[in-house]
């Protein structure tokens, strides 16, 4: 026995190179990813920033114009509409999602027998592409053949639901479809949060004589503040990036009344030959995301330490 | 040739100095225990021996070979982890054989080794099971089996018993001791449990704040602690520390104590060849273990350095085989260990015999032993 | 008082009300799916004369067949089939590659930490959150230089690069929960970087692999932005194909075909959701909350 192990022992000694390799392997393995991140994320952000300060039109040009493109952006009626729409759409989308999410989560938390099935139904839209969601809702909201017609056929002859063709209301149809897609997810976040609340707290409150709604309002929901926090982060992130849904549901129309920054950026960069302006709008989108995400990441990473 | 030699080892994490000038060495077949409170550096030292943590300076030698810059797998050591660290996807036999497989031992040999180890640890019937299907004690055995199969020069045990319940812990402790006696292996064992340290070790290294406080045999550590930390850390219940004053009594020295009744008495100190004259009339801390204060029996009083003092029982804590009572001396609580039948009722006087033959004195300023 | 009466659940009328509210919401969530299904199996005639929810009198699968093989996008009438195939050709390699790299990354980042590994992770993490519009144009240029513009390998590359942040995050969080002692034990046993990964960690990584694969598949399959920006006529993914098909304005608007097409485009991710919903939700919450 001993001889076999001794032989192995001897051969194991001459391993200087392998040891060095082993020490470097983790770094070697991560190097491509690090390089990718540096080039394709940070490098490209820099590149876009650069383009946003040039007068690039159909093709990139590197004639510097300083912040002219940003100035132009804020003189551009369509951008102002897109930015205003984002505030409106984002605010409503986040608000309604949170409300629906909390409500459904609290109701589902009441030991509902069919909880599994209901949860599955609430969440399936999250598996769909925004393009599919947009296509479906475009059809449902069609004033000629959709919900409006259904309402009228059911006997409510004056029923009108033509928001999708109304320049003042088209943006609200985006809210409906987006809430449909994402609120189930918010519900899942809250439900997970509720399940994480120490049940003995609830028992203690019951022994103190608190009613169920009071227990939720005063004790359980305040525990969910971190969930609200992350839900707002995620939803605002979705809102700022929203592109597919607009393309499929309203196409930004009627006119450009339901444009969002993402569609504005795409249209100007790829179809209208305004690369400089498009890049400037992309940079502003990044700025908006960073303004929300960085404090969040900072607190998350600090909390873990 | 020493099996393990650690020379002037330092370890710093940034500005934190976690190991300071550690120096120790053990012979082949010895059972070394690294003991100390959490954060004392004992686990860091073990990881340094294993090669899992690099040291900042100093050197480590295993079997005479300098392994300071050798990777963990080539140091010829095996380790039993606190969490056992059994590979969850492998069954017991595969767990035990993995180290051999990695070292290129052929399959037949591996099977032989697994069988040998399994028999040794009585886990033959568990070989096909996955770790998740084992109890705590069984996992502990498998973790030991994994180390034994490798037949390394040194075994490292990192608090291996701390995840077991009290009863199993005692059983496994005995088992480890038996195994060590039978196989004559060299073991380095980390624990924060001073009873484990006393029962298992040939040699104990007591650590605190990254500094090796004392490195000696268990009995030496117990009887001759070098400072108040070692004295207080080893032994349960802990050694009594009584603030007192050195007095000269003729050609001898003693310490003056005042018992609960308010009477000053001089307890004689043993002669240890060191001049206590410098300490006369200065404050010292008298270290006296509870078992050195006990109920009075005639023949006990015949021994030298034993003094009878009237005391008052303030609290009594029966433990079964003996009873711990608290008395008051120099306005401090002092524990004494007596036989249950000898205990006087709480609140009533009781004479106690103070055996000063093993009494030690500490310098209150430096906390170092001065007598 | 018995312990039972303490359990916090409303009973009686309150309970019925709760059920009603929950079921009503389920109706809201199901409505589009039901409408799509009903519309997709009705002849155009019935769509015009009936309502969204009226059941088909003459059940037909013609719209499905047409959507699949002969619906027109502009003048090109080859249906959704080729886009569907494109999406698979894009998603499968993109998912496999990004998951594999993410797994090794997560392992290296948690079990072999080095100076700068936290910084690297932080840099990657931010990559999960940037709006892709900000890299869209430079990437288009790069793909052009690489000769990958309008090709499926180009789309695969893009999805791998921008999926890495997420896959790494998944595996990092999973491996962070595996005790380091396991790796140290294997190191002492003589196993190296890749041996430990393959022999010790991979066999216990099944749950996170499933989560990651599902998440990535859903992301890649449902992507529209990269698809519309970087694909050519023959390499469009199904989301782009669907959007073009629905928005084609020539000829009669065939709502039933549109809905069938939408369902076809949604089918793969729906199937994944039905088969592995648990993992899907876990991915959503893990990817989102642990950000």
From TrEMBL, chain A:
Asked if the keyword Cell membrane belongs to this entry, the reply reads yes
The family this protein is said to belong to: Belongs to the binding-protein-dependent transport system permease family.
| Keyword Transmembrane helix on entry | yes
Biological process (GO) annotations? transmembrane transport
Q: Where in the cell is it found?
A: Cell membrane
Q: How does it sit in the membrane?
A: Multi-pass membrane protein
The UniProt entry, under Gene3D superfamilies, shows: MetI-like (1.10.3720.10)
**Pfam (any one):** BPD_transp_1
Against InterPro entries, the record matches this protein to:
ABC_transporter_permease, MetI-like, MetI-like_sf
Cite the entry's keywords alphabetically.
Cell membrane, Membrane, Transmembrane, Transmembrane helix, Transport
Highest lineage ranks of the organism?
A: Bacteria, Pseudomonadati, Pseudomonadota, Gammaproteobacteria, Candidatus Competibacteraceae
Domain ABC transmembrane type-1: start-end pairs: 83-298
Q: Where does this chain mainly localize?
A: membrane
Supply one GO CC term from the record.
plasma membrane
Q: What is this protein called?
A: Glucose/mannose transport system permease protein
The record lists the membrane-crossing segments as: 28-50, 86-108, 120-140, 170-194, 215-240, 275-298
UniProtKB/TrEMBL annotation, chain B:
- ABC transporter domain residues are 4-234
Could you tell me which CDD domains the record lists for this protein?
ABC_MalK_N
Q: Which UniProt keywords apply?
A: ATP-binding, Nucleotide-binding, Transport
- By what name is this protein known? Carbohydrate ABC transporter ATP-binding protein (CUT1 family)
> Which SUPFAM superfamilies does the protein's record reference?
MOP-like, P-loop containing nucleoside triphosphate hydrolases
Q: Known Pfam families for this protein? A: ABC_tran, OB_MalK, TOBE
**One GO CC term, this protein:** ATP-binding cassette (ABC) transporter complex, substrate-binding subunit-containing
The processes (GO biological process) annotated in the record are: carbohydrate transport
Q: Which domain of life is it from?
A: Bacteria
What GO annotations for molecular function exist for this entry?
A: ABC-type transporter activity; ATP binding; ATP hydrolysis activity
Automatic annotation (TrEMBL), chain C:
Q: Which CDD domains match?
A: TM_PBP2
Q: Does the keyword Signal apply?
A: no
Keywords assigned: Membrane, Transmembrane, Transmembrane helix, Transport
Tell me a GO biological process for this protein.
Answer: transmembrane transport
| Superkingdom in the source lineage | Bacteria
Please report the record's description of how this protein sits within the membrane. Multi-pass membrane protein
Gene Ontology cellular-component annotations: plasma membrane
Q: Where in or outside the cell?
A: Cell membrane
Q: Which residues form the ABC transmembrane type-1 domain?
A: 84-276
Positions of transmembrane segments: 20-41, 88-107, 119-140, 152-171, 192-217, 259-281
Write down the PANTHER family for this protein, in alphabetical order: ABC TRANSPORTER PERMEASE PROTEIN (PTHR43879), GLUCOSE IMPORT SYSTEM PERMEASE PROTEIN GLCU (PTHR43879:SF1)
The Swiss-Prot or TrEMBL record describes its family as follows:
Belongs to the binding-protein-dependent transport system permease family.
What's the protein called, per UniProt?
A: Carbohydrate ABC transporter membrane protein 2 (CUT1 family)
Originating organism: Plasticicumulans lactativorans
